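I'm curious: can you give me some protein's one-letter sequence along with its C-alpha cells because I've never seen that pairing?
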Amino acid sequence: MPTSGKDQLFQQQQTHLVDFAFDELVVNVFPDMIRRSVPGYETVISMLGVFAGRYVQPHSSVYDLGCSLGASTLAMRRHITAEGCRVVGVDNSSAMIQRCQENVNQADKHGCDVPVSLVCADIQQADIQNASLVALNFTLQFLSPDERLAMLTSIYQGLLPGGALVLSEKICFDDTNKQEMFTDLHHDFKRANGYSDLEISQKRQTIENVLIPDTLEQHKERLMNAGFSSVHCWFQCFNFISLYAIK
C-alpha cells in the first residue's frame, strides 16, 4: 500500500484556523488520523466484510459513499462471494480518489477479481442502482442536515429488496451530562493515542462548523422516514456508532 505519515497537522499553534477539508495534507496522514481519532474504526471497517458476505447479492453493485482511501471498499470487496458483482467508490476529494486508486491497484496484485470503479463526485450526485450493500461511513455528518434525508432516500431507492445500508457516524446527545461525559472520554482516547491538548483543541475548532452530528434517535427516525423497514445499532464506542438498515 502507498505509505502514509503521522498526523501532525495541528501540532503547532496556528494563528488562523480554517474549516477542515479533505485536502492533500489530510490525505497524506489520513490512515493515522482516523485510527487515532475514531474509536472502533478498525472494527467498523472489518465488520463491513461480514456484512458483505451476508448481504451482497449476485449480479449487484456495492457502493462506498465517501470512500476516502478505500478501506471500506477493500474490506467489502475481499468478502464478496456472489457472482457478477462490482464495487463503486465515490468521493468528492480528488486527492482521496487518486490515493484510493493506488490502494486498489495494490490490492489487485493479490488476485481479487471483483471490479472496482472510483468516481470523483459529490455523493449526493451518485447514481445508485441495483445495489445490495451501501456503506456510508462518517460521511453523512458532513452534509447539511436538511440534505440528509434526501441522501438516504436516494440510497433506499437504489437498493434491491433485502439490501442493506451500513451507516457509521459521530453522534451527539440531548442529555448534556451524557454529552460532556462521552466528549471527555473521546478526548481521553485521543490523548492515549498521542494527541496533545493543543492538537485536540485546534482540530475541534476546524471541524465543528463542518461536522454537524445528530442524535441516535434522529438517525433512526430519518432512516425509517427514508423507507427502510428495520434499523439496528450494531456498534457504539463513546460518541461513535454504526447502524445497519434493511430495505
The helical segments are 24-37, 41-55, 71-78, 94-108, 148-158, 176-192, 197-207, 216-226.
